[in-house]
Amino acid sequence: MGHFNGLRPEYEVKDWRGRSYYTDFMWKLGEYFFVFEIMDYGSHGQDRTKYRMDLNRGLYLQSQGFHYIEISLDELKENPLFIVAMLRGILTPYLVAPTGQEGGVLRKFGRIERQLMRLAIRHHRMIRPAKAARELELHKETVIKYCRLLVDKGKFRAVPSGATGRVYQYEYLGSTQSPDLI
């Protein structure tokens, strides 16, 4: 997500019996707490009692207001891009304007700007305001306004056309994995 603010490895929590338990990772994001558990088959899948206790611990943490996310160690090793995509999908709704607390996320770009950047990536880094307006169901002048703002912010480059030098399209200059896109 672009930073490790608020992320704590081996974070201690008490379970329903009052016993200490250490989560793999705890991330405090504003007022939200996310618990990440990396699950491997060897330590969690073979012993049914341990498996049951792990499930109970997850239920307990959820009942206490934690967002509990289990990740397969095998999938993390073999397909890390899938895990990153799924985590982005889960965490995106919580990445809002800063609350002034540690771990708050500062958004540099508004919703329409992020939509335009993602649209440009889908269209091989090039965007035409008229086409983007149709796809995003916005007015063409609104899209042009936001494209110009993105030029000022260094994310887009206006591409002049022909002898007149009129601008009919913009090129996205950022990374396709940029945290600014979420």
Detailed description of the structure:
This is DUF559 domain-containing protein. The chain is of the alpha+beta class and 182 residues long. It is 39% helix and 26% strand. The chain folds into two domains: 7-94, no CATH class; 111-181, Winged helix-like DNA-binding domain superfamily/Winged helix DNA-binding domain (Arc Repressor Mutant, subunit A). It is built from seven helices and seven strands. A hairpin with a 4-residue loop joins β6 and β7 (166-172).
Name the features.
alpha+beta; Arc Repressor Mutant, subunit A; 2 domains; three-stranded antiparallel sheet; 182 residues; four-stranded mixed sheet; DUF559 domain-containing protein; 7 strands
Question: What order do the helices and strands come in, and which of them pair?
Answer:
Layout: E1 7-14, E2 20-29, E3 32-39, H1 41-44, H2 48-63, E4 67-72, H3 73-78, H4 80-91, H5 111-122, E5 126-127, H6 129-136, H7 140-152, E6 156-161, E7 166-172
Parallel strand pairs: 3-4
Antiparallel strand pairs: 1-2, 2-3, 5-7, 6-7
Helix pairs in contact: 6-7
* Tally of DSSP helical segments: 7
Biggest sheet statistics: 4 strands, mixed
Strand order of the largest sheet: 1-2-3-4
Which ranges are low-confidence, i.e. pLDDT below 50, for 5 or more consecutive residues? 97-104
Q: What's the gyration radius in Å?
A: 22 Å
Give the CA-CA distance, first to last residue: 8 Å
Q: Which structural class matches the secondary elements?
A: alpha+beta
Helix amount, in percent?
25-40%
Q: What overall form do the CA principal axes indicate?
A: elongated
* Total number of distinct structural domains: 2
Number of strands: 7
As a percent range, the share of strand residues is 25-35%
Give the H and E element order. Answer: EEEHHEHHHEHHEE
Mean pLDDT, as a whole number? Answer: 84
Organism: Paenibacillus apis
Protein name: DUF559 domain-containing protein
